[in-house]
Amino acid sequence: MTPVIVRESAYDYNTLKPTIWNIIETLEHNPFKKNSRILIKPNLLLPAKPEKAITTHPLVVRAVAEYALNAGCTVTVADSQATGTFHRLLKEGEYHKTLEDLDVQWVQFNKSVKKNIGEPFGEIDLAKDALEADAVINLAKLKTHSQMILTLGVKNLFGCVVGLRKPEWHMRAGVNRHMFTTLLVQIYRAIDPSLTIIDGILAMEGQGPGKGGSPRRLDVLVASNNAAAADAVVCNILGLNPMRLPTHTVSKELGVVEDDIKVDGVIPKVSEYRLPVLAPLTFGPGFLQGFMRKHLVQRPTVDPDLCKQCGECRQYCPADAISDDGNPLDFDYGKCIRCYCCIEVCPHGALRSQETRTGRLIRSIPGLRI
Ligand code: SF4
Ligand code: SF4
Fold first, then answer.
1. Is the distance from the beta carbon of residue 329 to the nearest atom of ligand 1 less than 6 Å?
2. 235 against 292, higher pLDDT
3. Of ligand 1's atoms, which has the minimum distance to the CA of residue 311?
4. Which comes out higher in pLDDT, residue 66 or 285?
């Protein structure tokens, strides 16, 4: 299996550029061939400054784009943000400024084509630009995620589902984390990126992946031709058993990753990395799950002091579970499917996922395994 490359790094372009170029040249498969149409897919979740650690750092994007142009490729940088305008995202995230002298095209995914990703989902709509590129370069951010523990290389490709179809998929996969993770891994397999680099120089810990998380310096880049293998190595760096990462267990089930992962480089040991609070999305026996989810499962809550009533969360909520007249916001926890999209898109970091008091109490009963 293709190795995973681990390198210590920083956002100093004089050292970052040679580090990334060296990573590309060390990989088993170098996708940058003359005249290839390269599509770079960073994590462009929402408009945010690089120091917030929400988006892939613009210097990482620059180093890869420069390598591709130098190899005679054409370069498009593309994603489909969850909130805000694409223009604002490029400005606030300092992408335009950082890459202004490079001949790259910036594209917000907006056209989809059908692609069969396999059972049970069959044909789904994925970004045309990503499917038609000669090679997709997946530039993920190392972040925590309230629903999936971490968002790394495999999950980054969910951005190839265009715009509001993302929450639609959350709704269809519902509260079944395994089902939603299967969708993520199958999308990864369908997009089939040639190279994944995970930007963990300034990572995020706590209640990510949006403004509720906290930046944390880890000074590391992890890269591979196989994103699922790179994700597993990130887990090792953070002291997390990869089998706890839903995308890893499903990647193993689907044969996307093997146990025997070769690593080129030294695996740094990170201590006390704060993972998000993550309780099960379901609770109790099947016939009681609706009731139990409503009252016992962790749920999104708002900090009224931070909420600016901008309405982004309401607009994005796939379950129509946030009412538009409450101040503070009013959630219908019976309808809420615990996808945590609202937390992800809130531009003011006003939402958190919180266990209910009763749920915490019940889970603390020794011997009760719910
Ligand atoms: S919680 Fe966040 S996204 Fe929702 S209305 Fe308040 S500020 Fe806007
Ligand atoms: S309220 Fe938040 S967590 Fe619940 S369904 Fe809506 S977006 Fe998802």
1. yes
2. 235
3. 5
4. 66
**Amino acid of residue 87:** H
Q: Which domains are seen in the chain, by residue range?
A: 4-264 (3.40.50.11440), 299-354 (3.30.70.20)
Our answer on whether the CB atom of 110 is closer than 6 Å to any ligand 1 atom is no
Q: Which ranges of the chain would DSSP assign to H, the alpha helix? A: 13-26, 58-70, 86-92, 95-98, 128-132, 153-156, 165-173, 177-191, 227-238, 246-253, 289-296, 312-316, 341-345, 357-363
Q: Whose CA is nearest to atom 4 of ligand 1?
A: 313
Residue list, ligand 2 pocket, CB within 6 Å: 300, 317-319, 321-322, 331, 336-342
- The answer on pLDDT for 317 being more than 50 is yes
More confident residue, 135 or 299: 135
Establish whether residue 309 lines the binding site of ligand 1, counting it when its CB lies within 6 angstroms of any ligand atom.
Answer: yes
pLDDT at 164 > cutoff 70 = yes
| Residue bearing the CA closest to ligand 1, atom 7 | 307
